[in-house]
Write a sequence for this structure.
């Protein structure tokens, strides 16, 4: 499964990728708005939006791309590693059900 994480803290990027790797997911992490964000996102299976640490413009861009690729979107107010683990556990259990 491929995951795009939008938002979060710059210092947590390596942790986010490590956690995703433990759940056998490929991850792209965007903590800052880049010029060509919509072209870099691709078409993942899951979008994780850490809404506390992201601009409205980034959320809008991510949601537009999610609609195009028909991906699932999970919004989370906290941007901790534990929150990401919880999201990935729920996604894994939903996929197995």
């Amino acid at each position: 499964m491929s995951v795009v994480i939008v938002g979060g803290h710059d210092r947590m990027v390596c942790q986010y990728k490590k956690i995703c790797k433990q759940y056998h997911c490929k991850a792209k992490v965007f903590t800052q708005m880049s010029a060509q964000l919509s072209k870099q996102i691709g078409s993942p299976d899951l979008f994780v939006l850490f809404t506390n640490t992201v601009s409205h413009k980034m959320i809008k861009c991510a949601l537009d791309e999610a609609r195009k690729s028909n991906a699932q979107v999970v919004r989370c107010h906290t941007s901790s590693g534990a929150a990401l683990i919880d999201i990935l556990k729920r996604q894994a259990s939903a996929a197995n059900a």
Summary: The beta strands are 2-7, 26-30, 46-50, 72-76.
